[in-house]
# Entry
Amino acid sequence: MTIFLYILFGFISGIFGGLGMGGGTLLIPLLTIFLGLDQKMCQGINLLSFLIMAVFSLIIHYKNGFVKTRGIFYIILSGIIFSVLGALTVTFLPSAILRICFGVFLCILAIIEFFKIFKNKKKEGE
# Structure
């Protein structure tokens, strides 16, 4: 049953990752809630799976003309710097704190998306 859940969760996160919505947004909660894995381990699993999925998604998006390289250097540079800082910070934090921070992050995303829906509905009604 555990292997089936790993495959199912990989499938779900792969679909969302391929859509560019971030498979980890689902993968981390699925692994912690249903398989009881440690938050830090789930984040590591997510990062490893993300690298592989991102390569294939990038190739497909590039072939379809959806990748623009203008200004990408600044995004990559700041992404590398803050990824290193984030990874170093995580090593000092307990998993419980990370779980709370990730939960708050997901709640904020949900609220933002909720208001976007009503904003778009309001524009359509005008």
